[in-house]
Amino acid sequence: MTLPNNQVPDINRPSRASQTQRKSSIIKGDSITHPLKGYKIPIKAYYTCNTDFVIYALKCPCGKMYIGQTSRQIKIRIREHKYSISNYDPENKKTHTPVGKHFYLHKHNSATLRWLVLEKVQLPQRGGDRKRLLLQTEARWIDRMNTVEPRGMNEAMSYKCFL
User: Fold this and answer.
1) Where is this region: Disordered (predicted)?
2) Which of 22, 80, 110, 153 has the greatest number of beta carbons closer than 10 A?
3) How far apart are the first and last CA of the chain?
4) Alpha-carbon distances of 124 from 72, 73, 74, rounded to whole Å
5) Predicted structure pTM score
């Protein structure tokens, strides 16, 4: 393939098909339903695929949920989760992630993954450690949504970020 002006193709840029697939996997709405108790929790703002420093929820077809955090754009982290689902190998420990393992064991695939941003962690007005605040907020959401195994896909919840 020859590109004008000796340009190199951008293999890291997602195709239109993957952009459409990512958008169709978003859980739309202004609330999320608690996976065990059934009540609605409001989502307080609108977020895009380019939003960073977020707490997010992943949902599988069987209703289990995973709560995660990322300081990068959410679209990058979702792409990584889909890759871990598609490439999970029970013989190769390097491919083991809680989400990949769950989807493999329950015979789901990456096309059935649904997700949404729960909250964006803002830079504190007086400064401080935004990454630590991100970890603390993630721990609160894991506790609130009760997503530690066996009820959810999170392997564990750490309180170290509060010390």
Assistant:
1) 1-27
2) 153
3) 55
4) 18, 19, 20
5) 0.84
Residues 6+ apart with CB under 8 A from 49: 22, 23, 73, 74, 75, 78
pLDDT tens-digit map of 123-154: 988 888 999 999 999 999 999 999 999 999 99
Cβ neighbours for 57, distance < 8 A, ≥ 6 positions apart: 27, 32, 65, 66, 67, 68, 115, 116, 118, 141, 145
- Those residues whose C-beta lies under 8 Å from the C-beta of residue 31, and which sit 6 or more positions away, are 40, 41, 42, 43
Degrees (nearest 5) of the Cα angle 64, 65, 71? 160
Residue 112: predicted pLDDT: 96
How many whole angstroms separate alpha carbon 76 and alpha carbon 79? 5
101 phi and psi angles, rounded to 5 deg: -60, -45
Average pLDDT over residues 72-84: 97
Distance CA 69, CA 137 (A): 9
106-116 pLDDT per residue, tens: 999 999 999 99
- Average predicted confidence (pLDDT) for the chain: 88
Distance CA 133, CA 135 (A): 5
Pairing of strands 31-33, 40-42: antiparallel
